[in-house]
Amino acid sequence: MLKKLKGIDIIIIFIILLLIVTTIFGLSSFKTDKSYEITNQYGDVVEIFGSGIYAHDSNFKASGSIGTDFTILFLVVPMMIAALIIEIKNRKIKSKLFLTSVTATVLYYATSVAFGVTYNSLHLVYIGLFSSSLFALIILIKSIKTVELREIQKLVLPSKGLSIYLVLSGFSLFVAWLPDIITSLINGRTLMLIEIYTTEITYVLDMGIVSPLMFICLYLLKKKDGLGDIVLAIILKACIIIGIMLIVQTIFQNLAGVFIAVPVLITKVGIFVALALFAAYFDIKLYKNIIE
User: Fold this and answer.
1) Of 161, 200, 177, 195, which Cα lies nearest the Cα of 269?
2) Alpha-carbon gap, residue 90 to 286, rounded angstroms
């Protein structure tokens, strides 16, 4: 197998190792008896987690991050290992597409921890994870022959159902996050859950990158551009994983004593879980109809 390894395979192995380190440290931080309260820079009282690598993060952010770490370690890492093994054995477009989509989700996670959590002892690991997953994604996308992908894709894209899904998903990200920003602007104060942070990385990624990417994907699919198929695979895989991740995050937040109102659960968890179910359906159809 060593003779079959390529440069990108080494990078993926490196990413997997960094993910294991990051998530194990994160999970080992889950202790709920060390929290304390401070007054933040905005004059609000915030509960600080007080334990492990998330010791200086808020209780809300830290418990959610640990839920994310759990999902990454027990779902994404095995998925990435499987994707890498399949790619090494086959070197087909379908295997590359699978590995690319998982790597893109890892990049989303890496960006979130590198820019979103309070500085801690894993900062260099976060930088390594962010950098390696970013360049791995670029290499993987470049390695997929889009023209050939279009030829072996037997599914007529975009279907009416898929078009509706991409449009609704794109708008749903704004429905979930935009009201928080509008409310803060109207009230002349910062975001409700800004806590000790200066910005909310999830809002930036979801509304600034992921949502526009869904509409760009739809445009590319209508133009019969193979890049649209790649972007679609990335979006669907990310939606599936994030839908599962939000459930796990909510469980860990409840265990940490974080109260989440029912309307918030519906708009910020329920919507994404529903989208994940539809994403799983379209994802299965996508790979099933790639005939090599």
Assistant:
1) 177
2) 18
